[in-house]
Amino acid sequence: MHYFRKRGWELPESAATPEPVFRARRQLIKALAAGPILAATPALLSSCDGKEASNSTAPGGASGAAGDPSAKLYPVARNLRYRVDRPETLEKFATEYNNFYEYGGTKSISRAARQLRIRPWTVKIDGMVEKPFDIAIDDLLAKMPLEERVYRFRCVEAWAMTVPWSGFPMKALVDLAKPQSGAKYVRMETFGDSSLAPGLKQVWYPWPYVEGLTMAEATNELAFIATGLYGKPIPKQNGAPLRLVAPWKYGFKCVKSIVRVSFTDERPKTFWEKMGPSEYGFWANVNPEVAHPRWSQASENILGENRRAPSQLFNGYGEYVADLYKGLEGEKLYM
Ligand code: MTE
Predict the structure, then answer these.
(1) By residue range, what is the domain housing residue 140?
(2) 255 CB less than 6 Å from ligand 1?
(3) 49 beta partners
(4) CATH of the domain at 30
(5) How does pLDDT run across 187-241, given as a tens digit for each residue?
(6) I need a surface site. Which of 105, 176, 225, 266 has the fewest CB within 10 A?
(7) pLDDT digits over 307-326, tens only?
């Protein structure tokens, strides 16, 4: 964390790391310590204590977009319908303070994420669709209506940023996929090839990273597939070449580096739900009044600004999305 100095009121990174991750790591360390495998796995153990050497020196201003063949597409026109009441976060904060567990459990993964190869990149569309198909990212980009949207973004760890994403409405992707009428959910999956990310060898995580939305959420006008950031192709550490942005939900819903989009009538079991069902749920809508089991969600730390601000229901996007949850009051909508 080069620019993000910890203040007394800040949630320490260790506290924000999900309890289940700690527990699973501890169990693994104990098991390893008990047997001869210990000596054979120094790399695994060094990542257990969160000090991955390659992550420790994130470079300044790493946009990660150099050499991206889609660079010529950006910048794209900003859609002014989505206005925000906060200044944009400086690019260096959004691109150097990340969560991308495939590259480690710290925030400084931008350098490690450079090993992600984003061409060729194919997205598989399958499940309950008229006809499953694969599409190469550049063909997809050519078909989609690209625009820029400035959205607020709120992590479950109580930090927030405001950034200009480029990309396309998720509804355009759903329309391209032609789901069958019985489809109720969209399941999205990150790459699982461990040659692209060392974290995928960490066996205590339920890889690949999976997230999901209901069809109503996925086709809501706010749901966005980001392929760019700050008028350039999206950096690898932010989820190149395409990731979800659902600004009314906690950031862990916003699955990065998507390789598969499946339509299903079963609610997908998501990565964090599998890790810690009592802490991270399927819905994960932002609500300042519903505390995380280990910290309050009442306020949020604005990345790069050394101040806290009150959190807002649905992260301030209630006018667009509150109706989606009518009749679902029995569900754990806010975790
Ligand atoms: N997607 C994948 N594949 N792996 C991850 O670890 N982390 C999530 C989400 N998407 C994550 C992911 C979390 S917890 C957050 S807060 C956001 O990505 C962070 O996005 P950012 O790094 O672009 O700010």
Answers:
(1) 13-325
(2) yes
(3) none
(4) 3.90.420.10
(5) 999 999 999 999 999 999 999 999 999 999 999 999 999 999 999 999 999 999 9
(6) 266
(7) 999 999 999 999 999 999 99
